Amino acid sequence: MCGIVGLFLKNPALQPELGLLTAQMLRVMTERGPDSAGFAVYGGARHGQTKITVRGLVPSDMAAFEKGLLACAGTGVTFLSRDDHTVITVPTEHEKAVRQFIAAFGHGVSFVASGDSIELYKGVGLPEDVATRFNLAGMSGTHAIGHTRMATESAVTTAGAHPFSTGPDQCLVHNGSLSNHNTLRRQLVREGLTFETENDSEVAAGYLSWRLSRGERLDEALTASLADLDGFYTFVVGTRDGFAVLRDPVACKPAVMAETDDYVAFASEYRAFAQLPGIGNATVFEPEPQRVYHWEHA
Amino acid sequence: MSNMQEIDLAECTLRDANSQLQGEDVTGAWVIRNPRGRHALAVGLTAPVDVLVDGQAGYYAAGMNQRANVTINGNAGPGVAENMMSGRVHVSGNASMAAGATGHGGLLVIDGDAGARCGISMKGIDIVVRGSVGHMSAFMAQSGTLVVCGEAGEALGDSLYEAKLFVRGDVKSLGADCEEKEMTPQDLAHLQSLLDRAGITEYPADSFRLYGSARRLYHFHVDNAAAY
Amino acid sequence: MTDNSKKIPRTKPRFSATFDPFTISEIQRAAATGIYDIRGAGTKRKLPHFDDLLFLGASISRYPLEGYRERCDTDVVLGTRFARKPIRLKTPVTIAGMSFGALSAQAKEALGRGASAVGTSTTTGDGGMTPEERGHSSILVYQYLPSRYGMNPDDLRRADAIEVVVGQGAKPGGGGMLLGQKISSRVAKMRDLPEGIDQRSACRHPDWTGPDDLEIKIEELREITNWEKPIYLKIGASRPYYDVSLAVKAGADVVVLDGMQGGTAATQEVFIEHVGLPILSAIRSAVQALQDLGMHRKVQLIVSGGIRSGADMAKALALGADAVAIGTAALVALGDQSPDLAEEYARLGTVPGAYDDWQDGRDPAGITTQDPELAARLDPVLGGRRIANYLSVMTMEAQAIARACGKSHLHNLEPEDMVALTMEAAAMTRIPLAGTEWYPGKGSF
């Protein structure tokens, strides 16, 4: 039960402001989700490089971590730490080795997301504090998705915060409550997926990743979810090149979109749009139930 | 109006704003500046005042209105004018879900589109939407009138009681127990008066169709069991 | 030859435990009518209940208070979190929400009179507030339900508290149903429905779903009522830990937790008997949720569903509730199930103690009916007196137990004052099995 925001920039001139605009939208959604917050920012993709976001790396472990990374990926590795999250950029051919190293490292370090352009940050606390901790306002990029969480059935933890990333450059945020996620989780585990939390939204993310990994397009995977995911949901799904929106057939959870020549924005409530440039002239509409909305950079 | 009294939500709390408007003896014209999508704006008004919300309104704007004339100069969030008793609420932009939900009276005019479940469980309110309405509009609508100049989404008027639904454009599908009705001269006159009150002159009343309850669900019958 | 046949022992007709006579009659009824059985009252199956707990009483390690002489207070304040005008009850037992429509106007009036006489509250129901019940209830809780029948801001402001009903114990997740027989002209007018039709009401609120939207709804209700009224949130017991946590997050002043024994005016038998939690199993996790949020006693907890006596009340309070609510028991106190009505019950195909066709509107006691002749049988003044008597007895019973446990206030009862008689009750309440220090789940096996 939550607040969702998303911003997809059509006009590259706005890219330096992506983080600031997203942070403003996220803050407005505080009342919908005061427990935790998170966001994925897409951008800065470089050919042959993969970004890996990890969390829980503390300064005292940094030297050992760095040494291990150098051993499996050579000198092409770069780091950027923001609070307890670290984005590691590695040559793509070493991604697998680095992922294995991270999984084995221990010391409370866990993998968050990876891909060409995704960086993903999340934490417990008020959305504004979470955004400040990671300096969201200072980030630039092509598109971003954010979430503020009011936990329903699963625990208030960093792992339980959205977005959930279960595939390369993929992430999902959810407002609602799924009613068949336990059965679906068991099926997906049999298919070889692993889950970090008891959260229903992680199952939705895993489900989409599973379908994408079988070669389906995002719109196909989302359409299939209408048959397989039961309950109430508004999803916003991020991919390397864009984002998609889907609401369940009943569509009780709020969703509103605004489109201008410069951007497409998504939010749980209109008021999140208040500070977007040119919002007064935007086309504002509510996504229809059961319809996949999809925006992509060419 | 030149002598509008001003409330600036950038400078006062929602409680301050609403309490200034809620008294029985409040009069005149008011404007609420910087609403910024705040919820529960101008709710529970009881006096025949004019209130202009100058911008976006959040959930439940003008909720439970009695006698006041509230204009929202922008979009309205879910449940605008919910459970309105009397008076008038006018949204210049779009309204989100459940506009006019359970309203007992008064007139709600929406210049743009209304989202899903417009007029759900309405109990006497009149709603005029210049644009289109979303799915499940007028679900369980008990009485009153919903006028839609544009199109209606799926399952219009599902489980309808005695409300009347006038739609000019396409209806994606009718809900259980909702059917098209013959329009009587009284229906036409009623529709015309609502269009007049909403200031809609471009659509003639006879370009609408009327939908109402088939009354097949009023008493349980085993052959209708799937429709409950 | 006849002698010989007499000597052969005959096996007695044997009924199946699976296909027992009730089950068989239900299959026959379903096949004949094509509709599920709808009835009133609450679950009839045997469930773990307060009877499975006992108080320890005082002896040498603890000292009892002298009955009737030494003080044992019973007052409770509800709505201290945000409301500017919290409610003060003289005794922590209130009358649960029952609608005018489900009940006659006389019955509603009697409940109001009785509750007022002992300084407690009564509650409206799905169908709005009648002048009779407002007039006769010194403290009236106004229910805000999915149907919003009769909902209006004047009554909202006339109420002493507002109870946002998310669900009820008899049917968590289910909507309402009132059959045509009870939609009299007055009920129809209040609900804005055609007279005499079957009324279906929604299971979800029309303009909010989930705790994030609920928080906004509560803010609206507070803004309309000048932040004066306590806002209760009523939930059917299903996932009490999560639901109570979310009620607190959404801004409730008071949580009302209704177990599956709670009565209903009319619901599918299958819903009544197969959905929800017994109240005994729900209280501890609800209290745990409040404690985990640091809100125990700050957001008050009212529990209901099968509360019958001062002992039940004392046990609920000892488990951490702040008050209890009664519904079915109040109807019995008014005269429901009376042996005096045996002949009339027989004509309806039932017996005193088993009458549950509250939906039919033919209640010979004149309580669950809109028939003017039947309703006139209930004298609201006398009925009020019976309710007051019963509420007083419950209070005195609870005090008797509390004094025996050495408590000068009912709220000082605690889980440690009790033991469990069954493994089930011990597991559900985390109260040790009598004679042990242990409950299932404690320590390792």
TrEMBL record, chain A:
Residues 2-298 form the Glutamine amidotransferase type-2 domain. Its EC number is 2.4.2.14. It comes from the Bacteria. CDD domains: GlxB (cd01907). It comes from Komagataeibacter saccharivorans. SUPFAM superfamilies: N-terminal nucleophile aminohydrolases (Ntn hydrolases) (SSF56235). Keywords: Glutamine amidotransferase, Glycosyltransferase, Transferase. This is Amidophosphoribosyltransferase. The keyword Transferase applies. Pfam families: GATase_6. The keyword Transferase applies. GO terms for molecular function: amidophosphoribosyltransferase activity.
TrEMBL record, chain B:
InterPro entries: Glu_synth_asu_C_sf, Glu_synth_lsu_3. It comes from the Bacteria. One of its GO terms (molecular function) is oxidoreductase activity. Gene3D superfamilies: Glutamate synthase, alpha subunit, C-terminal domain. Transmembrane segments: none annotated. This is GXGXG motif protein.
Automatic annotation (TrEMBL), chain C:
The gene is gltA. Keywords: Oxidoreductase. GO terms for molecular function: glutamate synthase (NADPH) activity. Residues 81-335, 364-407 form the Glutamate synthase domain. Belongs to the glutamate synthase family. Its EC number is 1.4.1.13. One of its GO terms (biological process) is glutamate biosynthetic process. It is an enzyme of class 1 (oxidoreductase). It holds the Pfam family Glu_synthase. This is Glutamate synthase [NADPH] large chain. InterPro entries: Aldolase_TIM, GltB, GltB_archl_type, Glu_synthdom.
